[in-house]
Specification:
The complex is a heterodimer.
Chain A lengths: L1 H23 L15 E7 L4 H5 L2 H8 L11 H11 L4 H11 L4 E4 L30 H10 L2 H4 L36
Helix pairs in contact in A: 4-5
Chain B lengths: L2 H23 L21 E8 L6 E13 L13 E7 L11 E7 L7 E8 L7 E2 L4 E6 L4 E3 L4 E9 L6 H7 L20 E2 L5 E4 L2 E5 L6 E2 L9 E11 L12 E10 L6
The chains are: A mainly alpha, B mainly beta.
């Protein structure tokens, strides 16, 4: 009788644990009718490539990762970083122009345009290869970005006066597109 | 020996074992055991790239893609799959022309289980239940299997989630020498910079930008060495969705300028 009582108690406790585990996390099994919906908290955000990496100190990445890309400029370290990083070696109007182009921190595409995609194409009126904007798999986003930061891209687009402070060695990483992406879904090359 | 009691005891042991498995599989939920909340703690939540381009075979469609799980060495993608604790989202602002950059639509993906046999559910595109950085799931659109290009939503939407070759190309190692602070492996005390330029293959290599000549690599004192695509031999996990542009248009309007970004989220805002 004592054995039966021990087993029954253990069974009851264990089933209660299973039931609690299955409902508390919201990941195992389906939530029941009326259950509180699972909330997810943002830990990572990415839009335009290389913007965080180029401008923002690593210590601030977690802040930018956890906020909206269109929020208050004064609370997003990315916005101030674009200015302060650029101001270190270019005329002041370069930093303010890049802030205006790169913030809000979203990739812009114009779906009314036929294409092709071209990184920063909307922001530059098509100067980077097309007015669709967005980003194609083969876009050399690094050289486009380096050209704007260290080269003469902004002055060539008449967005700023040329400050003649270009750093030619930093305007390209000299790596070209050599991936075998495809013209059919899902477009990205099969794994190696 | 009472057979009923034996079955009862056996059931109790199995149920207790199940309970322990449940709690060991999700140690971070509802607790503070993981004290490193950065995405580097969970590569499956680390977004490497976002793409948005017109579909090559259908001018009425647009393709959105995000890559996660960086630096999978060539040939090592087997076993890599999405994290069922992570909510993967594309967020779309479709009223950018009016300087409204908040998300008006979301497209969400969540894996049902761990492992490459997982089924993935796509939710949306639909107006988010809440804007900002804490989100819940919107209406389900369809399900599909990992690593299998699929069509859902009555044939309107193509979806894929699985291993692909990393499409990004960049001399990342050289960049980290120029700005060593950006490399998470150097934290919290990055070393001083060890290079001042990217590599140029030859001293005579011309440097021309936007039609303007800036001389040669040698005349500018650039570093002469072989440039290297650091990502050439790595794979990632890709989430790709192709859908009609009209599905991203404002209600009652035409598809126009949109703002796109991708996010990853977890139940407790930690890397899990």
């Amino acid at each position: 009788m004592a054995k039966y009582t021990w087993s029954a108690s253990l069974l009851t406790a264990a089933l209660a644990l299973v039931f609690a585990g299955c409902n508390g996390g919201g990941h195992i099994g389906l939530p029941g009718p009326g259950a509180t919906p699972q909330h997810y908290v943002q830990i990572e955000l990415l839009a335009r490539p290389a913007v965080k990496e180029a401008f923002e100190a690593f210590a601030n990445h977690d802040v930018t990762n956890r906020i909206e890309p269109y929020g208050n400029q004064s609370t997003d370290p990315l916005f101030s970083s674009i200015g302060s990083f650029t101001d270190a070696f270019r005329a002041p109007q370069y930093g303010t122009t890049l802030q205006a182009v790169l913030y809000p921190n979203e990739m812009i595409a114009d779906l009314s345009q036929a294409g092709p995609a071209a990184y920063l194409g909307v922001e530059t009126g098509g100067a980077t290869g097309g007015k669709f904007g967005g980003r194609a798999l083969g876009d050399d986003v690094i050289d486009i970005s380096l050209g704007a930061i260290f080269g003469n891209t902004l002055s060539a687009l008449s967005l700023v006066a040329d400050d003649h402070k270009e750093a030619p060695c930093l305007t390209t990483d000299n790596v070209g597109y050599d991936k075998a992406n495809t013209a059919t879904f899902p477009y990205i090359q099969a794994p190696l | 020996m009472n057979r009923g009691l034996s079955w009862s005891a056996l059931a109790a042991v199995l149920a207790l074992a199940c309970a322990l498995v449940v709690y060991r599989a999700y140690p971070g939920l509802g607790s503070d055991h993981q004290d490193s909340p950065t995405v580097t703690g969970n590569p499956l939540a680390d977004i490497t790239d976002v793409f948005a381009f017109p579909a090559a075979d259908n001018p009425n469609n647009v393709v959105l893609a995000m890559n996660v799980d960086p630096l999978i060495p060539a040939g090592m993608f087997s076993g890599q799959a999405l994290d069922p604790n992570v909510l993967y989202q594309f967020k779309i602002a479709n009223n950018v022309a009016a300087a409204d950059f908040a998300e008006h639509l979301v497209i969400q993906f969540r894996a049902g289980t761990s492992g490459t046999n997982q089924t993935i559910t796509m939710y949306g595109p639909a107006a988010p239940n809440e804007t900002g950085t804490t989100n819940t799931l919107v209406a389900q659109t369809g399900t599909f299997s990992f690593n299998t290009p699929s069509t859902i939503d009555s044939g309107q939407v193509q979806v894929f989630a699985g291993p692909r070759r990393d499409p990004f190309f960049f001399d990342l190692a050289q960049f980290f020498k120029i700005v060593p602070d950006r490399n998470y492996q150097n934290q919290p005390s990055p070393p001083p910079a060890t290079a001042t330029s990217f590599n140029f293959a030859t001293a005579s290599q011309p440097i021309i930008l936007n039609g303007t000549s800036f001389g040669t690599a040698a005349s500018n004192g650039c570093t002469i060495a072989t440039p290297t695509d650091f990502l050439a031999n790595f794979d990632v996990l890709s989430i790709v969705v192709e859908l009609p542009k009209t599905m991203l248009a404002p209600a009652g309007g035409q598809a126009g300028k949109i703002g796109v970004w991708a996010t990853t989220s977890t139940p407790d805002g930690q890397s899990e």
